[in-house]
């Protein structure tokens, strides 16, 4: 069977699917990890926010409702500074942190506000506005101390040709290979 290895020592079998964060789903296929990131739609609200456990921002307040005016003097489209034309009630994202809507001939844009992150090294994924934590990196991986040296978690080393050690979550595990005596 085909196996995919991922950072951190985990592995997945052919066809397995898992989430590495709230926006990204990965699949093991032909010993390769294939990941897809969710694309968030534009939002029609004044203060979109994103919680730590959701991928796409949401509208905490009432969505902006396009007014269906019967005033024929108002244009049924909007034109931005680049000359792009949008129909009334059409929404779009000029960049990853901003959603815009065409209302009554005018363009209204709203910026996404990001929640605070609780990790040391937040990640900013392409196409997403807010940084987020892949895992809780504030909890450092345990290390092992042996004979005055420091070894990383999951690191292996040899004391001599017969004794091998391994660091596992702060514990040093050593095993000795017993060799047959020479005649």
Automatic annotation (TrEMBL):
GO cellular component, one term: plasma membrane
Lineage: superkingdom: Eukaryota
Domain spans labelled VWFC: 2-60, 76-134
Gene3D superfamilies: 6.20.200.20, Complement Module, domain 1
Protein name per UniProt: VWFC domain-containing protein
Biological source species: Micrurus spixii (Amazon coral snake)
Lineage: Eukaryota, Metazoa, Chordata, Craniata, Vertebrata
């Amino acid at each position: 069977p085909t196996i995919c290895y991922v950072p951190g020592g985990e592995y997945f079998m052919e066809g397995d699917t898992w989430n590495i964060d709230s926006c990204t789903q990965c699949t093991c296929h032909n010993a390769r990890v294939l990941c897809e990131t969710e694309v968030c739609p534009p939002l029609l609200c004044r203060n979109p926010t994103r919680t730590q456990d959701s991928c796409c921002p949401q509208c905490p307040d009432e969505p902006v409702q396009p007014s269906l005016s019967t005033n024929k003097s108002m244009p049924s489209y909007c034109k931005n500074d680049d000359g792009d034309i949008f129909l009334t009630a059409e929404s779009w994202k000029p960049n990853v942190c901003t959603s815009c809507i065409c209302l009554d001939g005018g363009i209204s844009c709203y910026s996404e506000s990001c929640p605070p992150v609780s990790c040391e090294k937040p990640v900013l994924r392409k196409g997403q506005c807010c940084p987020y934590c892949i895992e809780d990196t504030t909890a450092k991986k345990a290390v092992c101390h042996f004979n005055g040296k420091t070894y990383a978690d999951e690191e292996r080393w040899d004391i001599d040709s017969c004794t091998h050690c391994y660091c596992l979550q702060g514990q040093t595990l050593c095993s000795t290979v017993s060799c047959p005596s020479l005649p």
